[in-house]
Amino acid sequence: MSPTSVQDQLHAMRHRALAGLDDAAGLAAITDWERSFLGAKGELTTFLRGLGALSAEERPLAGRAGNALKVELTKAYEAKRTTLAAAALDRRLDADAVDISLPGRRPVFGGSHPLSQVIDELSEIFALLGYQTVFGPEVETARYNFDLLNIPADHPARDVWDTLHVEAAEELVLRTHTSPMQARTMERQPPPVRVVVPGKAFRYEAQDASHEWMFHQLEGLAVDTNITMSDLKGTLAEVARQLFGPARKIRFRCDFFPFTEPGVDFAIDCAICDGRGCRVCKQTGWLELGGAGMVHPNVLRGVGYDPDQVSGFAFGLGIDRIAMMRSGLDDIRAFAANDLRVLRQFARVA
Ligand code: FA5
């Protein structure tokens, strides 16, 4: 190759390279450009590698010119890349621009639901009385929901619970009350036991102002030596006082639950009308809060406890009814209807 043709070759390459760089519109395009001229297999790199094939006379000249072009192209490339990167950054900043003159957005504060408030309050009251709060499954086996509560499969009492069945073959049900946690708790530990179990319960029954198909109960269970009915009455009286103040009267009446002996229903005089009779207490002056009783010996035996050694009491309070009394809401369906205009009036911000 003559010196002139080497010069021509470099000249043409320089021309193409600078024109190509001029045309490159974005960072991706100049990366391609860099690869095709200055990269390991690029045009200029290939030229410089080929210098050895030239004659001793033309090699120094071609080398000097080739290296000078490399310096020039590298500088031009760096400059172009800086310009393109700055333009890209400007575009991004423009797109993300924040107008600081706009008014701020108010954060939306959550608040606890009236039912959660009662559950929290009851858990605190019972914690001070030495009870631990535990939780249990909402989908239950018939064994815990019925059998271990002294309600065998052929017992008529089983029909009373208006059960929603999940899986007929395995007898999985939506728990009809929180009582299944009695056996679950006792199976897990030896006596003494003192637990409360807040949670959902489900029954297939017609809805009205005081009945929902999904509602909430708080189960209580105390098992120890020498536990008597007086302990049950004293405990529930104390809880009623803590919840509704010292003026409330309490009433226990005989009731039947297969898992208690004896069983009672537990009511307080109506806090709305002071026991005189009103719409909420259906003119009776009393509001039933739940069922209770002494744990049936068969239930204790079923979990391996000895009814000659220990005794206990249990109760199941209707949380929705308590929340209705506290809030003055006279329709239980308002709790799950999710109308924020209603719930916001009672929401407590934690
Ligand atoms: C029971 O569910 C028993 N497991 C309670 C119990 C526990 C008795 C331990 C003895 C020992 P009962 O079906 O009465 O009992 O329900 C208890 C309370 O749950 C009721 O007083 C009521 O406040 C509430 N409750 C029952 N059904 C509904 C319903 N459909 N909607 C709203 N609250 C309900």
Structural description of this entry:
The protein has 350 residues and is an alpha+beta fold. The chain has two domains: 3-95; 112-349, Bira Bifunctional Protein, Domain 2 (BirA Bifunctional Protein, domain 2, 2-Layer Sandwich), CATH 3.30.930. Helices cover 40% and strands 19% of the residues. It has eleven helices and ten strands. It has helices at residues 3-23, 27-37, 43-49, 59-95, 114-128, 142-145, 180-188, 229-244, 297-302, 319-327, 340-343; strands spanning 132-133, 139-141, 164-167, 172-174, 193-202, 214-224, 250-255, 260-269, 286-295, 311-318. A seven-stranded mixed beta sheet has the order 1-5-6-10-9-8-7, sandwiched between helices. Strand 3 and strand 4 form a beta hairpin. The model has no long low-confidence stretch (mean pLDDT 91). The protein binds adenosine-5'-[phenylalaninyl-phosphate].
Give a quick set of tags describing it.
BirA Bifunctional Protein, domain 2, 2 domains, alpha+beta, 350 residues, binds adenosine-5'-[phenylalaninyl-phosphate]
Write the layout of secondary structure elements.
Blueprint: H1 3-23, H2 27-37, H3 43-49, H4 59-95, H5 114-128, E1 132-133, E2 139-141, H6 142-145, E3 164-167, E4 172-174, H7 180-188, E5 193-202, E6 214-224, H8 229-244, E7 250-255, E8 260-269, E9 286-295, H9 297-302, E10 311-318, H10 319-327, H11 340-343
Parallel strand pairs: 1-5
Antiparallel strand pairs: 2-4, 3-4, 5-6, 6-10, 7-8, 8-9, 9-10
Bound molecules: adenosine-5'-[phenylalaninyl-phosphate] (FA5).
